[in-house]
UniProtKB/TrEMBL annotation:
This is Mannosyl-oligosaccharide glucosidase. It is found in: Endoplasmic reticulum membrane. It is a single-pass type II membrane protein. Residues 1-140 form the Glycosyl hydrolase family 63 N-terminal domain. InterPro entries: 6-hairpin_glycosidase_sf, 6hp_glycosidase-like_sf, Glyco_hydro_63_C, Glyco_hydro_63N, Glyco_hydro_63N_sf, Glycoside_hydrolase_63. Keywords: Endoplasmic reticulum, Glycoprotein, Glycosidase, Hydrolase, Membrane, Signal-anchor, Transmembrane, Transmembrane helix.
Amino acid sequence: MWFDATQFQGFQRIRHACDQGDKINGYGYNKHDGRNYAKQTINDGPSNIAITTEFIKIPGGQHGGDWGVRVRGKPMDDDVETITSVMFSLALEGEGSMDIVSKLSPEGLVSPVRLEGDTPELGDFEIHIVDGPSNEHPQGLDQDLSLTQWWGRELPEGIVMENLLMSARQKVSQGDQHDAFERPYAYFTLLNTLTEENEEVSNFYTFQKVFSGEFQFDVLFRSQSSPNKITGDSLETELAQREKTFDARFQEKFRLHEKGFSDEHVGFAQYLLSNMLGGIGYFHGSSVVDRSHHPLEDEENFSDVPIKAELTEPRSLFTATPSRPFFPRGFYWDEGFHELLIGKWDNDLSLDIIKNWVSLIDENGWVAREQILGEEARSKVPTEFQTQFPHYANPPTLYLAIKRYLDRLTEYRQENPINQHTFMATFDNPVLLQSLHLESPEMSKAWLRAVYPKLRLNWQWFRTTQSADLSRFNRKAESKEAYRWRGRTPNHTLTSGLDDYPRGEPPNVGELHVDLLSWMSFATRLLKDISSQLGPEFSTDVQEYSLIEKEMLQNLELLHWNEENQAFCDQTVENGEPIHVCHKGYISIFPVILGLLEPDSPKVKAIFDLIEDENELWSPYGLRSLSASDKFYNTGEDYWRGPIWININYLTLQSLYNNYMRVPGPYQGQAERIYNSLRHNIISAVFKDYQKTGYVWEQYSDKTGEGKRSHPFTGWTSLVLLIMAEEY
């Protein structure tokens, strides 16, 4: 936590939780390995300070080992006076104790500040807060600002800002109010006291340092069971080594220089990966669910019935997040895309996250599309969006990530014939932790066996709750395989992930949605592939999936292909008769981007033509979400009605690359042309805007290529790295 202490108003801009309204000139991780090392830069223009934070973990001993943090600051404009007040907080939850063992003084604490503590999980530990070698400090009032100011309390009932305000009020009441505006850094300081009934116990501490100009300090956690204790010198050495290791591994994984990218492009690509990894978090708490209606009851029967929400039992989730400031929680629709990149970098970390998500699938096969776990998570979500409904779905994108794992598994076994001796000989190699489920056939099969039952349950839930009614309307189909998104409202289908994308109006039980049938076809094919690898006892499942996949693909063309528009379309019902609803855009290309059409299908040609047409989906910056010729283009909230989304553009590129460009067929040349141009446009647009703004964004304008809405949005926009590396 920090603020500009040069100006009195600087205290009102105290930085803590990242927020889009902070007007920071770009921030994020420049390097992050997902496990033991990270480096972050925060360019705080309004405070004239660029802050760099670096972090390492050093495993060892019986309690997890040591960790260290280095915080550095440098004025962005050396000609501007810069005084920065920085605070670092330490809190202890659960059993145990933590105490300052440095000599306490009302003037402040001498560096290094030392704390000691113990918990059942961490054992005995100590923490050192150490000043850098050449810090400078302004003059205080009754406190020595070259020392560390501090505050501790038994429970964090108040907040740090209250303590700073209390300190400022006391000093102003005893002195010159005008001086407080001239020298705010001398007034907004911690009180150097313990605020508690029992002054022998405190479990929450905040330490404050006030710097003039450039600064540095370290925070070192030392486990008493660690064989080699971290020090300031070893931190320096470790940080330099970890950075070199990260750079070398990044080059080995993605080989961007070999593809002709500059150092600036590589730095941008590292930013994409690092912020995806830096956005991974552990969440715990209850969610809000309304289970008052039967899952198969139509929405029309309770559209005006009040919500009957209840808190669930607390659950836990380990997940990546789309955006640290705006969407700091898990989203089912997003997570499968996230794991495409995470899995390329760290296979086993990705499998751990996927398995966590699969564990949330309940006994009926449902998983909430948005994981808003606990009060802190709910504080970021408007009340009307907090309640989850157990008949609402979301695109099952985890299947994308699991398919990519199966692809990696196949590639690895082809390149590395199984050799048990080699595997055992390298088992203690830390890098192996990232690929155990590739190295070991037993572990890979065990993982698939562990997730398969709930994946199948979720698939069955989709086929039950999201199935469409073909019998009530005069429809011709080969089977009952047809689907519609439940939970529709006028002008919105939030459950589809495509929110305001135009559909049939008004919402009704006779709708059929082409994107959902496409997702179901893709999921069925993947479950067939998984079950075929699990052994002969799953042969019945394989046969079932094979039959249903065939029926789904038949109905995809029978029910959703519109010959007049040469496009795949939704259906709705008017006057009791089914009609196509054709709004050309992302939903029209789902059968191609999920690889469901054979390379020689004439419908592939029609979709390629739709993609390439500048009056339809093609723009100089990527594929727009809705055709420029559609009457709803750029209307309403304009969320999925024209702007460019990287996740769908990525799916398009990977399908062109894997299914149509490198496979013989009559449209192979057109596929390659689209692929090369689209890849170039996407990389150029996102990189150019990153250079301009310091951020990557939730979506991009199809007219200017400028980033729009949430930022930094280092969820699926980070897939640009895979596009650069051509890792599909």
